[in-house]
Backbone:
């Protein structure tokens, strides 16, 4: 299981537009490579996203993650500020620790409910879905991807830990800026992947 964070480091609207595109493209590449991809947390605004945390699982997950980790560059005239002189926009993708600090179960309120969607009669008749809510912050997740309530509860705790971390990142800009500035210092002159124009055409070496 691999956790990736897409970060704009509170960058301008152009960076957030780029980050939204990158999230969609990464999800599409994951599907094409048979990698299970799940959005654990996302901070969005009217232009795009400020940050997002993805969970990747599958044989090709590590290869996919490595193909994205680092600084990404978008070369394009600003779509929201036509006269702006800047044409280079940067965001970063970095790998988070695989085991975040789990909240204590005493801090969490669990509720069970019937699963919905695909799965036939089994999911409709059993209350295997789990909603976990962190009492102090009100942050909650709902998990029904596993067949057993126990497995969904375990998964809910993992997702809740990352959603709480994502929330803290959004609230504390210093954290994101510190992570992102580290990428800038090392990688800005040598971005991992470069996209061009309003259609985000990828530049290949």
Residues:
């Amino acid at each position: 299981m691999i956790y990736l964070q897409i970060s704009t480091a509170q960058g301008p609207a152009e960076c957030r537009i780029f980050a939204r595109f990158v999230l969609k493209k990464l999800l599409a590449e994951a599907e094409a490579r048979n990698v299970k991809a799940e959005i654990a947390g996302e901070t969005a605004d009217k232009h795009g996203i400020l940050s997002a945390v993805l969970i990747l699982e599958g044989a090709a997950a590590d290869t996919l993650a490595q193909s994205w980790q680092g600084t990404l560059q978008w070369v394009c005239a600003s779509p929201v500020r036509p006269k702006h002189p800047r044409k280079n926009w940067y965001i970063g993708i970095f790998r988070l620790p695989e085991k975040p600090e789990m909240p204590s179960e005493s801090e969490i309120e669990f509720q069970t409910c019937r699963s919905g969607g695909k799965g036939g009669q089994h999911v409709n008749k059993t209350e295997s879905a789990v909603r976990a809510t962190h009492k102090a912050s009100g942050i909650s997740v709902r998990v029904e991807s596993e067949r057993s309530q126990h497995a969904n509860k375990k998964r809910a705790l993992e997702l809740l830990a990352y959603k709480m971390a994502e929330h803290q990142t959004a609230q504390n800009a210093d954290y994101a800026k510190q992570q992102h500035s580290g990428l800038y210092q090392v990688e800005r002159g040598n971005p991992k992947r470069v996209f061009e124009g309003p259609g985000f055409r990828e530049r290949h070496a």
Remarks:
- Residues 105-168 form a domain with the Double Stranded RNA Binding Domain fold (CATH 3.30.160.20).
- DSSP finds five helices and ten strands in the chain.
